[in-house]
Design goal:
The chain has 417 residues and is α/β, with parallel strands linked by helices. It has 14 helices and 19 strands.
């Protein structure tokens, strides 16, 4: 990402650092400069600047697996899977999907609760070159039918216990139970990981502009509305978080349930471990806090109401004991009150609380450390911070013109996300 400064016209040279390597993306930039010796003479200097674009999410995962194959990648109950184990399962499932017709800009649906299988499935779909479509278990049958009809997936990946809940689709599609006996036996095969990696690398390369996932909302009309995101969106969003908010390393453990499809891959791009939180646990403050303590979780995203529910369930001593490993808490999905902010810092003074604002169409829009907010802005609610560096935002009126400072309007988000 490039940032430009307005320079004085008498400056006749600008130091430019040009990255070396095999990066392909380039941006052409022209500077109009004046000569200090002849102010009537102007020179246009054109520069070709190498712009390093982010890797696709699944590519970052495979690169990390190559670096730290024995590090813990996924944790569920008492089972820990290393990066090498996860990578092996991902590529095997990706091959099965490619054999079923998955390819660039095709979609594969996922129908299961948050779990290790879900993370493996998302990575496998992206590795196969396709895009994933989450299907909520809570969807009524009519909603599932509408989404399947609209998305036309080439396959649905589910678990044995949920398979019977899937309605018949309008078009033929493969239904894969990832935890059936065939897949369990496949896991026991002594397949050499390097051979699988070489096979994956021989597949067509996925572009940042190819489709990565489609999420559905009920829409204002009651009809499901698919929101399609290319690989560029999560890749840039996650890179922004790594660079400006929080990065990960071995030993970091990120618990995920809320907004699972956005949260559950980020840590495994950088060496951390993901801890899926079961749906039966997420709204039980006692069970959730015990899980956070048992798994030594270092980060989790909450909605404000979910965090308040946990606080209300436990004593102050229990909160501090069970959440002692936490370093960062993201708050998202609802307004954060000043009262909750004060409660957070009272109960967990050593934790970073980040107010994160995002929308389905373009990932993150803004974020702020709640310690850094201006308390003069409101006595009731916390601000959402400044726009992220890769998502310029504008407040426009009904005629799509900029409003004056202090006036209200509609939020427009630009940029590549």
């Amino acid at each position: 990402m490039l940032r430009f400064l307005c320079v004085p016209r008498e400056v006749d040279s600008i130091p430019v650092e040009v990255p070396t390597g095999d990066e392909e993306p380039r941006t052409s930039v022209s500077f109009l400069l004046s000569s200090p010796h002849n102010h009537k003479k102007e020179t246009i200097i054109s520069l070709i600047i190498m712009v390093a674009e982010p890797e696709c999410v699944h590519v970052s995962f495979h690169q990390q697996a190559d670096k730290t194959p024995e590090a813990v990648c996924l944790i569920q109950d008492d089972e820990e899977l290393t990066y090498a184990q996860v990578q092996r399962r991902v590529i095997l499932l990706a091959k099965e999907l490619r054999d079923a017709g998955a390819c660039a800009n095709s979609v594969v649906a996922i129908f299961m609760e948050p779990c290790n299988y879900y993370v493996i499935t998302m990575l496998a779909i992206l590795t196969a070159g396709a895009a994933y479509v989450p299907l909520e278990l809570a969807y009524p049958t009519t909603m599932l039918q509408r989404v399947l009809s609209d998305a036309t997936p080439v396959a649905v990946i589910t678990k044995r216990e949920q398979r019977h809940l899937l309605p018949l689709a309008d078009t033929p599609l493969a239904v894969i139970s990832i935890d059936d006996a065939g897949h369990e036996q496949q896991e026991d095969l002594l397949t050499q990981l390097q051979g699988l990696v070489n096979m994956y690398k021989s597949w067509p390369k996925v572009s940042l502009d190819d489709l990565a996932f489609v999420v559905y909302s009920s829409g204002t009309t009651g009809q499901p509305k698919g929101i399609a995101n290319p690989h560029r969106a999560p890749a840039m969003s996650y890179n922004w978080r790594f660079q400006e908010i929080v990065d990960y390393k071995q030993g970091d453990r990120v618990a995920c349930n809320i907004f699972f499809v956005w949260e559950a891959i980020r840590a495994v791009m950088r060496g951390g471990a993901v801890v899926p939180v079961p749906s039966a646990v997420i709204f039980d403050g006692d069970a959730l806090s015990n899980m956070l303590q048992k798994q030594a979780v270092t980060e989790m995203l909450f909605t404000p109401s979910l965090l308040e529910n946990l606080y209300n369930t436990l004593s102050e001593a229990e909160i501090r004991e069970r959440m002692a490993s936490l370093k960062t808490v993201f708050l998202n999905g609802e307004v954060v009150t000043i009262a909750l902010r004060e409660r957070c810092f009272h109960l967990l003074p050593n934790v970073r609380f980040i107010n994160l604002y995002s929308v389905s169409e373009c990932h993150e829009v803004g974020a702020v450390d709640l310690k850094d907010i201006d308390l003069k802005l409101s006595t009731k609610f916390c601000p959402i911070g400044e726009p992220c560096s890769v998502s310029p935002v504008y407040i426009l009126d009904e005629e799509e013109k900029r409003v004056a400072p202090g006036d209200a309007g509609e939020l427009y988000v630009g940029g590549d996300m």
